[in-house]
Amino acid sequence: MLSISEALVSISKALRPVGIEAVQLDAAFGRVCAQNVSALLDAPPFAASAMDGYAVRFADIADDTSPLACLDVVKAGDRDVAPLAPGTCARIFTGAPIPPGADTVVLQEQARSEGGAVSFLAGIERYRHIRAAGSNFRAGDVTAHAGRRLTARDIGLLAASGHNTLRVHRRPQAAILSTGDELSSRFRAGEGAQILDANRPALTALVAAWGGKPIDLGIAPDRPDALVHALDGVQADLLIVTGGASVGTFDLVRPALERLGFSASFRKIRMRPGKATMFGVLAGLPVLSLPGNAVAALVSALVFLKPTLSALAGLGFEEVPRDCAVLAAPLSAVGPRDTFLRGRLDRGADGRPTFTAMAMQDTAMLLGLAKAHALTIRPANAPPAQPGEMIEVIRFD
Amino acid sequence: MLSISEALVSISKALRPVGIEAVQLDAAFGRVCAQNVSALLDAPPFAASAMDGYAVRFADIADDTSPLACLDVVKAGDRDVAPLAPGTCARIFTGAPIPPGADTVVLQEQARSEGGAVSFLAGIERYRHIRAAGSNFRAGDVTAHAGRRLTARDIGLLAASGHNTLRVHRRPQAAILSTGDELSSRFRAGEGAQILDANRPALTALVAAWGGKPIDLGIAPDRPDALVHALDGVQADLLIVTGGASVGTFDLVRPALERLGFSASFRKIRMRPGKATMFGVLAGLPVLSLPGNAVAALVSALVFLKPTLSALAGLGFEEVPRDCAVLAAPLSAVGPRDTFLRGRLDRGADGRPTFTAMAMQDTAMLLGLAKAHALTIRPANAPPAQPGEMIEVIRFD
Prior knowledge:
The structure is a homodimer of 397-residue chains.
Chain A: H1 4-13, E1 20-24, E2 37-38, E3 48-49, E4 53-56, H2 58-62, E5 68-74, E6 88-92, E7 104-107, E8 111-114, E9 117-120, E10 130-131, E11 142-144, H3 152-160, E12 165-169, E13 173-179, E14 183-184, E15 195-196, H4 199-209, E16 213-220, H5 224-231, E17 238-242, H6 247-259, E18 263-266, E19 271-272, E20 278-282, E21 285-290, H7 294-312, E22 323-327, E23 338-347, E24 353-357, H8 366-371, E25 374-378, E26 390-395
Parallel strand pairs in A: 5-6, 13-16, 13-17, 14-15, 17-21, 19-23, 22-24
Antiparallel strand pairs in A: 1-12, 2-11, 3-10, 4-6, 4-7, 5-9, 8-9, 18-20, 20-21, 22-26, 23-24, 23-25, 25-26
């Protein structure tokens, strides 16, 4: 059995970023930039006032407190602003171009206007309240780097730097197949005992949340031919198989994949839950097989599917970020596998997050999983842990 | 001028959750549940094995170590399982129904099968490795509460509890209008100085990221009639106006809104940046007017727009969550307004996040904003802060 780190390395070697497409900027939020993008213009495009006030030649007010005639008003959006005549000032508003000749903006709070003439308080600083042309960015400056997942702030910056379309990586298409005779996809009232498939809907949501495009392959029954049929010729960037509950199902999926030419990188991982995670390649298609148990499937998805989708999306292969939290209640010693415990995060008196493991860690407990905030990772063979110890957590969502 | 808290209270009073629609479960991720949802069935629907092993009557192995005949195999998905004859055992797999009469599952690792008979190690515990019917949830248990934003785990739980469609709040529609003669929405090469509208694209992305549906109203020029025309009859749940850069523009927007019957709850907030944030109601439509300055607009959006969209979406009005971080570099004293500083978060040696304010806090600096990880909030009139102090931060994204 591989460790989690070994498994991550093994997966990362099999992945290449998907191709590139052009999108409008208003559809680029959350997408991964496929090339460095450079500003097409300077911002601001001209020296501009940073405040509302008066544009002056500093020399006119430095030693002489007599009022200056105010002969012009300059607003944001004005073009071809007239030069400032020596010995005069101009009313100016935030964002307006500085009139040629002016070198200082005096805040309106530091000025007094009376009958067309303006006098200024002492102690004005030269060059103040002027944003130089290009002081935010210059034409040619990189405003978004290849491999960055674009935030709303990036979208604003890209718009400001002149871009309306953008080359981004496609969303990786992830086909999701559930397997297991015991599963139904739809509740039928009055039909007796039914077990409804939770994994496919949850994984569909996770794939979308993590930047992929889910493709629903439905539920395949536990018959070799039916499995081979379901697994054959899948058109996607990734195939996710989520096994039925039992070893029996697991034992059917691998032979079916192998009949189609699948080569497994690993079949089990030294973790709990999530041991029955398998990864390999089927005719160039990466295949991630997750446990059938719903909690195990979600833990394994967080640890392995999320970085897989990131790598396919062009973000690079990055482990899921771990935060620190203070343990609020004791934890018992850990067995021979890295162990994930569900729990709640609260905010401690000193402002640091605290983690309390949930009493019920049975992996069938979807209800408890939905109520948890985070997982903590306890290394294999770790001794008992006491309240106050610092532990690592992975936050959900 | 109101404080941030007073402004938030004032906004919250004007908001009502939007209406309700039915969606398929696969479109419900991230949506806000509009009613309590109860499970339609028990899970598991019958007592089921939690492991792969053997189902036994405990009495048969408690005091007697002779092997039991293994006469049956029960797999997940099997129905109408035959009762376990006394003095026999059944091979059983994870998720399979417990045969009537059996009360214990013995792990396969604790059993030895030879010629159709199975012997068991000593020390087996009664009732082990059986999940009782309904031990995850019972029909009628609430599996998602009204007002919850649905996670992937919720989607899995809702699927498991029998739901394929769901009643959720509509996505609040937020119409976004930029104003300002100085703004263009598209770069034109060779046309001289241009200032491109960053706010509308960034706000469009934020509205979508925060669960709303953006409606693009374009850019209105700084003319009273044109503004009235642009602001009149907007069909949405929220109108966001983002002012031009100057006081001049701001002074045009309010009269234009007032000509249409707008009543302002407040016009300015004691914060920096973001002072020029205004909120009110126009013929039943909540209107949030954000500063024209791009950084101020984004800070104000984080503080006011995000809770506004949450309240409209049915989540309730919640302030943006604040995390704690350790200050890594000194901060100077704060003026008379609550002050937001952009900065980077790193992870300190003790695992706690550290915050370093960016050197350049000029609010025109979109480039710096895009590189920041978080804002810190410094209360009005706060004294200088030293490295090591605990401060509050709001994380971006």
